[in-house]
Design goal:
- The chain is an alpha+beta fold.
- It has helices at 2-27, 40-50, 90-96, 100-113, 125-139, and strands spanning 55-67, 72-84, 144-156.
- It has a three-stranded antiparallel beta sheet.
Length: 157
């Protein structure tokens, strides 16, 4: 039963993180300020800093990973979004939509090369870093900046 407790605690931690992010976002909404005569450049800079990174939804992943050398089958379920640098425009993100299947393939490869103990980390930092490395290798530059995982579930049999 410790695996189910671990899964529940990971899900609970994720829910708390999402709730904290949403509460800070709702507490500090972006609002346009009236620029004074000498403040127009500084106001534009603050609006750009508050802008969110463009994201791309890669959908839901359900991966069964058989590892016969350890007599184990790992089952992962999660939804994934990629956050890109703020320098990308909306049209560039729409063009990346055509690469969705290539990006999903890289996420699957990253999942299969990750060790099972890394799926049990509370923050999943190594798993997210592996995904970022694989995705940015596809672009041949550091375009993707962050991986957002939701509804994460890891089981072994």
């Amino acid at each position: 039963m410790p695996q189910t407790e671990l899964i529940r605690s990971c899900v609970f931690v994720r829910i708390l993180l999402v709730a904290a992010i949403l509460s800070t976002a709702l507490a500090n909404p972006t609002r346009a300020q009236e620029p004074s005569e000498g403040d127009s450049a500084s106001t534009d800079a603050t609006v750009e800093e508050e802008a969110l990174n463009p994201t791309l939804d890669l959908g839901e992943f359900k991966i069964n990973d058989l590892r016969p050398t350890r007599n184990m089958t790992a089952k992962l379920t999660f939804k994934l979004h990629l956050a890109f640098s703020k320098s990308l425009t909306e049209t560039q993100v729409e063009q990346l939509e055509r690469w969705k299947h290539r990006l999903r393939d890289q996420v699957i490869v990253a999942t299969r090369i990750t060790q099972a103990k890394e799926f049990q980390e509370p923050d999943l930092s190594r798993f997210q870093k592996t995904i970022l490395v694989r995705v940015n290798r596809l672009f041949q530059s550091k375009i993707a900046e962050d991986v957002l995982l939701t509804e994460y579930l890891f089981r072994t049999h």
